[in-house]
Amino acid sequence: MNRNRRWLPRATAGSAQVPSTVGRAAARLGWLDALRGLAALTVAMHHFNLLGMLPFGGFVWWHFDPGLYGVMLFFVVSGYIIPASLERRGDIRAFWVGRIFRIYPAMIAALALSIMILPSGDGSVALLRTGHNLISLVANGIMLQDLLGVINSMNVTWTLCYEMVFYYFVTALFSLGWHRRSGPIAVGSATVALVLGTAIAPMTLTTDLSSTRNLVLAAAVIVAMGLACMLSGNRTLTRTGALLLAGLGLVLVVFNSRAPSFETWMIFATMFAGTAVYRAEHGQIDRMQAAFCCGFVIVAGVLVGWMYNRDGMQQNTWTAGWVAWSAAYFGAWATFGVGLMLRRRRFPRVLTWLGAVSFSVYLLHIPLLHTLAPRLHVPPVPHTAGGKVLWTAEFLAVVLLVSYLLYRLVELPMQKLGRRVLKAVERGLPAVAAGPGPGGSRSGPDGTASDGAGASAARPGGSRPGDPQPGGTAVLPAQPGPERAGDVTAGSR
Prior knowledge:
By secondary structure, this protein is mainly α. It is built from 18 helices and no strands.
């Protein structure tokens, strides 16, 4: 921590160190933006079916799933930066206000735009189109739909459910002062993935419409109570709300995840392992502990693919088989490792810019793809090399342009509004810290965290991250099949 203190500029007038200090902080976060941008672009091109246009695409698909790679890279980055954001603030209420204004406005705007532009009958946006609209609206509104047996409002939003539960867990740990136990939690989650595998059936709590309705209602009441407590500013109520939401998340993850148990638990193992890396880098835990933790999680991630993602189970993970799953998981960690080693370097501005708009890219790439292709009369795979290049360029240009507009016109203004709202709330209802606060986290200047969310990671898979989800009027989704493509990594992951 002495190094961090030396890095801090003195608060003197006209200090010439401040600009360079800000530049260093930006460089430190630049590598995370670059990774988010790479993950978003990989997911978008996966749903674009880039592999289908390449002569060796079939070989790659059988041996490496780009959708899963992008999703897991998103999750590692989120695990690294989200707890840092909470601990930097030292204020649970401020953290949640920031999260709400970071995620919901962009998602609502993306939904509205998608509904307006998508062709009639397209299934990539299912909100208000299920035949059980109130259940769909509530489940997607609390962002737990994928754990409640309800179809995602947009195919890509399934990953946000796991991010949301991760926020629940992180908040509860912070409120109890247990937030530095990321390593043991990551190892424990990976152990559960190894041992349980596919032993617990998915969606055991939502077997029919009645049970789904009841679970959605119960979850909505608990979430409302939990958020109200955490936003109250009262220490005891904040801790109560955090534990209430963490308890709900744990029950849903254990008993009602749509994904197989091994994949669900590896998601949380991955995020908490990312947190362990952050803590080791900032001297909060021993580096050997973090190394053993991450090593175990990576080995477990590769092994669970070989152990469980076969004999038909790959249809539930929207991958080609265990090789594709395991290679993609290992590749996500390898990419994160390279980024971590290069974190002191400046990354190309185009990559950091792509990271800034990554959430919008994640939300919009599927609707824009499904809108452009029929209007431009583009076949699933253009017949000529020139046609493939032109169609790829058109798709990327439109996605990046519209995503940039959403980022500038919605994301940034609403984040600023969130900060103003928080200041107004704090003036009227001062908060009492419910956790160890910034001193407890000891993150120092290196711990400066962006509220940006890679949160939006996509999930690999047929209808998972991006491809359209099955149509129909039922709220209860069919058992996932090879067609997974809609979540952020949907369609095919």
